[in-house]
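In response to a reviewer's request, we include the raw inputs and outputs for one of the modeled complexes. The two entities were modeled together in a single run.
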Amino acid sequence: MKYIDEFRSRALTSRLISRIRSVADEGREYRYMEVCGTHTMAIFKYGLRELLPRNIRLISGPGCPVCVTPLEYLDRAIAIAGLPKVIITTFGDMLRVPGSSSTLENERAGGKHIKVVYSTDDALDIANRNTDKEVVFLGVGFETTVPTVAASIMSAAKQGIHNYSVLCAHKTMPEALGAIMAHRDARIDGFLLPGHVSAITGMKPYGFLAKRYGAGCVAAGFEPVDMLQAILMLMEQKRPIVEVQYKRIVDPLGNRLARKAIEKVFEKSSSEWRGIGKLKNSGLRIRKEFSRFDASLKFRVKTVRPREDKSCICGAVLKGIKTPVDCKLFGKKCTPADPVGSCMVSSEGTCAAYYKYGRR
Amino acid sequence: MDRITLGHGSGGRQMHKLIDSLFLKAFSNPILNQKRDSAVLNIGNKKIAFTTDSYVVDPIFFPGGDIGSLAIYGTVNDLSVCGARALYISVGAVIEEGLDGSVLERIVRSMAEAAKKAGVRIVTGDTKVVEKGSCDRIFINTSGIGEVYYEGLSTDKIAPGDSVIVSGPVGDHAISVLSKREGIEFGTIVRSDSAPLDKLIWKVLRSSKKVRFMRDPTRGGLATTLNEIALGAKSGIAIEERDVPVRPPVRQACELLGLDPLYLACEGRVIIIAAKEDGPRILKTLGADKAGRGAKIIGSVTGDRSARVYLNTIAGGKRIIDMLSGEQLPRIC
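The model returned the following structure tokens for the whole complex.
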């Protein structure tokens, strides 16, 4: 398959590996955080970890949208699903995420109208075909996902669709990475920045990671060759700078059109990251002029302040301080079929990736 | 016990847990406990294979097949992989009130044709109609019996060094159904691989006396079926990612939707474990038949007792492939 096979070529990966080996200074440890959940998955899927020298440590970051979505959001979504004449539409990975007492999958089995969609267009379509129902889209995800959600709200406004709304938990990436670097236990030498998020944001928002925290940054693609090349680029940086490896997708200036759509519909707000806590300016909320599409205003539901399982260390995992195998629930009480913590739920979660591909 | 979710029906780990902890416990007997695709029964001096399966596919018509032919072939295949010649089939139909008569006619005609093609006779049946909303248009159950002509297929026979063969590209059925259901097209129309395997398997078993075990990778796909085989054999299996046949449009669909082709259902493929020396001959036999075109040796049984399935990745790495957990869920980004 064109543009895929080339980036999985064994000839190229082995050349990159030997370059990495020759560049690596045996006396030091290289600690790089792969930010995106898709990076984590790809690292495991292609078995990259064992190809790399031992002193290169890859640490999984907070870029799995499902994993950082707070429990309270799920409880709210489940509560809204329980209202009469409501259809919840969602991307598939949200289905099995445990809320305080249930999951959307479980609620669906109990007869609630919960539909998996592949795009916001599908959700709008469902709204159009069910004018007697309220269709709520679960807006979860980073800058990659937000533009399409913004577009769906603009379309709904333009077409006069009144029965569509978004329960928004969108988050933005740079602030979370700043919070990780500010943490006293963080020891990160560089970031493999999320390729598709960077395609929207451009590279400017990451400048502070290099300048203030001395962390090198390379926006990386998701194929084995992409990631190995990005690691090599980080190792070869003379001083911490922000670069792009994923040039076939990422324009350093980003996607202005997409950002304009985001800005039109959303504004910055503080946001709760599961496991990390509340971070200033790290979230998006729907602007006042579009508030009629804001499901959190449209449906007043009560949720109890939820309690997390105290033994779960997803927070430390998301910050890159601990790895899943440090958790006593991992692989025992917490498995992909019956997850406790958020990192086990999404196929992109660090714990799920460790469980699925990394157990020995 | 928890509420039953779709994950319990997806063929993976949850379903196995449900079967082991509930059904096997309650119905336990030596024949059932073998957990084979068909039960092999000694009746008089004959060995008879007996199996059952229910079909609830949505949409009921898809490129390359429909619920009717699928219901016939699925049962024929479950008998065939146990070394049995399928003879007689029963059909039970649960029909939703309001189903268009012409739709039912189409399905029934398709079943009749499929039965003819697979050389089986439909000898008994049942019809029920339920209120609108109590089922989705039509559900079909088929049971079948067959005469065992090749004995000794068993995971116990599997030995280190044996070859792992798949009879054709994987995932066509799942993507065909998914693209029809979701209205997504991937360049070309992907046709389901739904087909009867009786003749193909008969040829294979005639060409080699060293076939150890066979199973069709339906729900849960290649990965789940290989895990079942590894568990049964108490032996590891290693496969090569680059040798697993996947058609380009299926790969494209998987890339786009974030699905793993190793977990996609097939309805006309069989995994064959056979002695290494017979691998090439079996491959030739498969390749000479239309139903086995694109067959590949994808790996081998390893000596270790881990009962894990390993994949040597295209990039040169190695990873474990586990059974499917829950449904395969499309991802956010």
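As requested, we also summarize the result in words. The first strand of chain A starts at residue 30 and ends at 36. Residues 209 and 249 of chain A are 22 Å apart (CA to CA).
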